[in-house]
């Protein structure tokens, strides 16, 4: 007897539409228009990371994105400035991520343990404002346990190392990292956390991790915006949804003898 498999959601990150806009100045391309197209093509929500240096998404973008009917996932550093802005905007969710000015993109998971009581207070403050709090973490047992302890509702597992190992052809390391991700997903779910995943995912890796049953949402941006150059954003999202559906269909499927 098989049990029903929960659906998996797709959050589309529109940061790099704003990166292209900002490279030249002006108003185009518009990340809000990209968000609208993404939702029309099957995205379940929109993710945007407002960085301290405003290198891509800007405050005005966040305010306009918040006006859309789709859920908004506000990626942000755990700073007083960002917490205050999140409480003003009241997005559906906030994902707290580590941030360094000199990095090109988020390089690792949040140090939940090192964040101490200050991080716990920020999670509590956001939750009290009715915002669902997610912590972007490496697949590390101690960090995940601490995320549950301080009251996060969600963890988003950092899939970047796994994707990098695959891209470099380092198969043994990729397999070991994927095993860590699966273990972490099970651990987090056992602690009552909702499990998301993201960073570096493409069609193939999204299909693979969609087959990990505790994972409820994938957040993908850079790859989809890159694919949109060649096939259009809506088609890229349709193909991503199809890849995720193929992965989800593996759960509970009978294995060949």
List the defining traits of the structure above:
TIM Barrel, alpha/beta, 257 residues, globular, 16% strand, single chain, 8-stranded parallel barrel, Pyridoxine-5'_phos_synth
Quaternary assembly: single chain
- So how many helices? 11
CATH class value of the domain at 9-133 and 202-249 = Alpha Beta
Shape by Cα distribution:
globular
* SS class: alpha/beta
Task: Give an account of the 3D structure.
- The chain is α/β, with parallel strands linked by helices.
- It has a domain at 9-133 and 202-249: TIM Barrel (Alpha-Beta Barrel), CATH 3.20.20.70.
- Helix content is 50%, strand content 16%.
- It is built from eleven helices and eight strands.
- It has helices at 15-24, 31-41, 59-66, 80-89, 112-128, 141-149, 160-167, 171-190, 203-210, 222-231, 233-249; strands spanning 9-13, 45-49, 72-76, 93-96, 132-137, 154-158, 194-198, 215-220.
- The longest helix is centred in the last third of the chain and has 20 residues, at 171-190.
- The two termini are 18 Å apart.
């Amino acid at each position: 007897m098989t049990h029903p498999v929960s659906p998996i959601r797709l959050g589309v990150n529109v940061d790099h539409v704003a990166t292209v806009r900002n490279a030249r100045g002006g108003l185009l391309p518009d990340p809000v228009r990209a968000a609208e197209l993404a939702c029309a093509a099957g995205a379940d929500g929109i993710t945007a990371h407002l960085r301290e240096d405003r290198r891509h998404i800007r405050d005005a973008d966040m305010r306009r994105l918040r006006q859309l009917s789709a859920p908004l996932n506000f990626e942000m550093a755990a700073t007083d400035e960002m917490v205050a802005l999140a409480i003003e905007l009241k997005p559906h969710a906030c994902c707290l991520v580590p941030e360094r000015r000199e990095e090109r993109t988020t390089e690792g998971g949040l140090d939940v343990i090192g964040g101490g009581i200050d991080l716990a207070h920020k999670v509590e403050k956001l939750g009290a404002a009715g915002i669902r709090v997610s912590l972007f973490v490496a697949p590390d047992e101690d960090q995940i346990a601490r995320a549950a302890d301080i009251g996060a509702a969600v963890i988003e597992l950092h899939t970047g190392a796994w994707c990098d190992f695959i891209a470099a052809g380092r198969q043994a390391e990729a397999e070991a990292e994927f095993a860590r991700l699966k273990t972490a997903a099970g651990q987090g779910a056992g602690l009552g956390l909702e499990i998301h995943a993201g960073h570096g995912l493409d069609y193939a890796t999204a299909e693979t991790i969609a087959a990990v049953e505790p994972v409820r949402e994938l957040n993908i941006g850079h790859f989809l915006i890159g694919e949109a150059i060649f096939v259009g954003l809506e088609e890229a999202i349709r193909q991503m949804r199809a890849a995720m559906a193929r992965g989800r269909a593996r759960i509970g499927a009978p294995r060949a003898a």
